[in-house]
Amino acid sequence: MSADTTMTEGLNIIQKSASPPSYVSTRNACKLCAPLGASLVFRGIEGAVPFLHGSQGCATYMRRYIISHFREPMDIAASGFSESSAIFGGGENLRRGLQNVTAQYKPSMIGVATTCLCETIGEDVAAMVREYALSEGQDGRTEGHAPQLVHVSTPSYSGTHVDGFHAAVRSVVETLATPEATSHHCVNFFPGMVSAADLRYLKEIAEDFEISSLLLPDYSETLDGPALDAYQKIPAGGTPIQGIRSAAGARASIEFGRTVRERDTAAAFLERTFGVRAHRLGLPIGINETDRFFSTLKDIADRPASRKHELERGRLIDSYVDGHKYVFGKRAIVYGEEDLVVGLAALLAEIGIIPVLCASGGKSGALRQAIAEVAPSSPEVTEVCDDTDFMSIGEKAKLLKPDLLIGNSKGYGIARDLGIPLVRVGFPIHDRIGGQRILHLGYRGTQQLFDRIVNALLEYKQQTAEIGYSYM
Amino acid sequence: MTNVLHERERQVYRKGAEPFQIDCEKQSAAGSVSQRACVFCGSRVVLYPIADALHVVHGPIGCASYTWDIRGARSSGPQLHRLSFSTDLQEMDVIRGGEKKLFAALCELIDAHHPKAAFVYATCIAGIIGDDVNAVCKQASEAKGIPVLPVHSEGFKGTKKDGYRAACEALFQLIGTASTEGIVPTSVNILGDFNLAGEIWMIREYFERMGIQVVACITGDGRVDDIRRAHGAALNLVQCSGSMMYLAKSMKERWGTPFLRVSYFGIEDMAQALYDTARFFKDPEIMRRTQDLVHQEIDKVMPQINAYRRDVQGKKAGIYVGGAFKAFSLVRALRLLDMKTVLVGSQTGSREDYEQLRELCDEGTIIVDDSNPLELAGFLQEKDVDLFIGGVKERPIAYKLGVGFCDHNHERKEALAGFAGMVNFAREVHSTVMSPVWQFTSRKRNETAV
To answer: How far apart are CA A429 and CA A439, in angstroms?
Structure first.
């Protein structure tokens, strides 16, 4: 954003006099940088080590951020640029880094994500990675002693952690999927950035439909693993590389995300290149969005949902009825990754809570349209802000007078200032334990969200009541 | 024996091996998964606690996002330091340059928050695209009438230590720019305490009881106006010497202010710090008050510490921290609990630091520079450590192995400095070492099986 565009934006703001002024700077960012998303993806692949080509600090900062959410080891290697590598190029650091990671971790894959530093000095990391693979007797596609290398371009001056996440999924598929894959009955799932509990639940749903699935990424175990008898250099679990290689032979792909640019996704690539049918759905949050997901599964599996899921859906509707009066007409601010915001807006719309502000630091350009699709209401009722930050959200919140906030830990300050509850969802959860085990998706995840939302409102009412009722 | 990368072998020393040999103060091995951060991190941690200054990160968003409100550095007044401001450079800014954006950001933020000064952190990209950050700072300073100080903290330009130095250079520009009126001869500056969980308030109160005036806290609960008159203090007390020694030396050179190295962690080091300060002023009254204070405080805390010691004595500890100076205090504090340090390392220690650690530690202790998760996991198992002390990145390594953990880093919310802090430290150690949860983890299960 240049100073000039700010001036014109400033004029727009004056016309909409109810809005606080806009800023050139980003104040309390509602986004993270692209390589973080890529690192999460690589951590969700079996035997893989994430690797950043840039300064040492990038890897360390992201590790700390991710560790604080998952409370699990999260190793990200870095080439560790020095001043001379910034001037003469970081190729030698990349080589030595890859060699050292290979020696230490004996990985089956190293996922190399770029940073703003190496992108700005114009390094051709793709070529460097290719050359390295050749020199190590690795042509990038066959299996051998040397680890498989995958490269993804994730400059942090372009897009957010969500863009880095999707770009990494696509790169992994583009690099590994072989045209020789024979067709099989597997379904590719590209769920986007969801919790470890969500990933486990998606696998369970697929099993219940008797669909063999390839879930990419799958950090349900690598970032939410058991206590161990011996330290694992690379934790067990993750998407099997062999499975990714045969992704082109799958009978279909399901990917979540209404705001991801369609042509850029792994599912779109597989459809375009190998004719694997792509089903594009919103994150299945709320009954309507989950019904769309289950209906797709029914079509693919050619069988109805099992009684277990029908019961979960039935109980969810029953609870909606039990709780509807506690929530009707309440005003909520929802923030976070764009697709999570869309899913939450869909849920709120179907239970009678007004999403007065849907905010994200992302800027796909598709947020407004996606929200209109899942939560139809007039723009006067639901304000949609993309490319925003937490101070802007806080300033709007003062005017909007919401009853609750729904989003990650970073909105806590706003909730505290307003004296209203925060229902914690998404990433990061840095002020509670168990962020990785929050379930958001499907009938079961919606049930948990609904219960937590209703209870947050009940608790607020109880705590602010003059009389300490134990019966609400 | 734990596997160590060939190029790192000389960064690990086991006491007993002769001659003493350790490599340090070098660039991290590529791909080693160092626990270190970067130059920016060094600058950011040092300046962060200055609560009435504006801190603007000039670069793409990551650096600002990851450092937003992660530290427990408290302020008794303004909370401006807890906000995260960034120029959030986009692709077009990288192509066209970010100077205009930086200037606009500084102007709007200074207008909105009325800070006493502004620090502008130039991160990797600002350096690479050649933004003249100095010129923009000068221009903003003239336009807004407050000091706007560039902090050259491009991540690739060295290590965290170079970031400390860049921060000290920015601080040094502030010092000497305000009147020293009202400063008495028995006065100090506290350098290198960051007021985590309110620690500096405790330390400050000790000095006040001794009859010593604290002029500026640099930087815990820091204020720009205090820092500007810091040259009026008679003595600089330097904790966290890795970060602040450069400033102390610069002040000695420019203003003749002498300095003492101190530590406020553990009873011995805390008492030593107060006695050294009292001795410096050569005032029998101050010395008498100091003795009274130390006796009172020790009498207050020892019964509680002894109670914890009975449970934890004989346990083995590992330490991995940012600066080695903190490790000295921790080894001594653990000794007070009758615990033995079998592993000690730091991200940025110097050869002298490690030499001193060797003198302090027992035979067989592993001393390591700039370690990584795999090595640390190996050392913990090799030494059968019961308690690991470190930061957020070290915690999951310990927990995965069924080892207790105590957070001694900047994110913590427990005050561990001062006499009362030693009780908190003992409680922290006790609460992890004595927890019944370990009965379910393999390390203890195996122990009971034997």
So the answer is: 13
3-state secondary structure of A13: helix
Cβ of B156 within 8 Å of Cβ of A27? The answer is no
Domain boundaries, chain B: 39-174, 187-292, 313-412
Q: Would you say residue A92 has pLDDT above 90?
A: yes
pLDDT digits (tens, 9 = 90+) for B415-448: 999 999 999 999 999 999 999 999 999 776 655 5
Whether the CB of A8 is below 8 Å from some CB of chain B: the reply is: no
The shortest CB-CB distance from A121 to any of B29, B56, B128 is to B128
**Domains A34-176 and A187-301 are alike in CATH topology:** yes
pLDDT in tens, B302-343: 999 999 999 999 999 999 999 898 999 999 999 999 999 999
Calculate how close chain A gets to B68, using CA atoms only, in Å: 7
B157/A71 Cβ within 8 A? no
Write the residue in B39, B94, B104 that is nearest to A157 by C-beta: B94
The CATH number fitting domain B39-174, selected from 3.40.50.150, 1.10.287.110, 3.90.1640.30, 3.40.50.1980: 3.40.50.1980
Looking at the domain that runs over A324-464, which CATH code has it been given? 3.40.50.1980
Dihedral through CA B190, CA B194, CA B197, CA B202, nearest 10? 0
Please state the ipTM of this predicted complex.
Answer: 0.96
> What dotted CATH number matches A187-301?
3.40.50.1980
Give the nearest chain A residue to B109 (CA atoms). Answer: A25
Return d(Cα B437, Cα A89) in angstroms, integer.
49
Q: Which of A340, A62, A73 minimizes the C-alpha distance to B70? A: A62
- B313-412 is a CATH 3.40.50.1980 domain: yes
CATH (residue range A34-176): 3.40.50.1980
- Candidate from B104, B156, B401 with C-beta closest to A81: B156
Q: What is the pLDDT of residues A13-56, one digit of tens each?
A: 333 445 677 899 999 999 999 999 999 999 999 999 999 999 99
Tell me which chain B residue has its CA closest to the CA of residue A75.
B33
How close is the nearest chain A Cα to the Cα of B104, in Å? 6
Judging contacts by C-beta atoms under 8 Å, the chain A residues touching residue B89 are 116, 157
Mean pLDDT estimate for chain A = 93
A residues 104-123 closer than 8 Å to B (CB): 104-105, 115-117, 120-121
DSSP string, A359-417: E-S---S-HHHHHHHHS---TTT-EEE-S-BHHHHHHHHHHH--SEEEE-GGGHHHHHH
> For chain A, which residues make up each domain, given as ranges?
34-176, 187-301, 324-464
Say yes or no: domain B187-292 is CATH 3.30.2020.30: no
The minimal CB distance from B31 to the residues A63, A81, A97 is found for A97
- Looking at residues A444-470, what average pLDDT do you find? 96
